[in-house]
Design brief:
Blueprint lengths: L3 H13 L13 H19 L5 E2 L7 E3 L5 E4 L18 E4 L7 E7 L6 E7 L16 E7 L3 E4 L5 E3 L7 E7 L4 E6 L4 E6 L8 E7 L3 E5 L2
Antiparallel strand pairs: 1-4, 2-3, 3-14, 4-13, 5-10, 5-14, 6-7, 6-13, 7-8, 8-9, 10-11, 11-12
Pfam family, one: PRY
Protein name: B30.2/SPRY domain-containing protein
InterPro entries: B30.2/SPRY, B30.2/SPRY_sf, Butyrophylin_SPRY, ConA-like_dom_sf, PRY, SPRY_dom, TRIM/RBCC
Amino acid sequence: MQTNSTFLIQIILICRNPASLKVSWYVTTKSMILNVSESVDQFLNLCFTVDVKLDPTTAHRHLKVSKDCKTVKYGRKNQKVEKSPQRFDKFGSVLGDKGIKSGKSYLEVEVSNKTGWELGVARVDANRQGNLNLNPESGYWVVAHYDDKKFSALKAPPLRLLLSEKPEKVGMFVDYEEGLVSFYNVGAASHIYSFTEGSFSGEILPYFSLRLQVFKALIK
């Protein structure tokens, strides 16, 4: 896990040159960090924010998507939905309605007071039926929170992540041309994990999954 100062300097470098995210160490001053921290959230959103809603046609039958398609809740009863290969039939998941085909994108998802969630991107043609292999080889670039305090990057095999605190809001930055997907704890201004060895072909979609109660996507 990276320090707050590393995270903040990375954000500025992302906006100037996405490849610089792979640099592992920076030298900075306290005054610079204070100045950056006041504007980093607004700057990132100004640069790259995308307007994403949840696509109810992809949602598992136990998920209830709100009318504005910004919130999804878990319901114990099956909803009457059409069977479709586009819909997740075993995983409690849902996709965003707007795909990414090029450029840079950033969104934030509120995950406070939840005991389990998954967040990332998926290839538009990735399998959604049965028991899924959530890893880049299968078209999923995802981080997960489970068992109260455990976090993992879903690779093959999964990589355990050591976070000092639970995120209440997660920022996700995607650079399509670089094959980069990065996750940040917005409140703590800290880096969670980056998939840096991706190579996207075709459209990718934001991926959301929950295990209990409410999962709310907030797009600024």
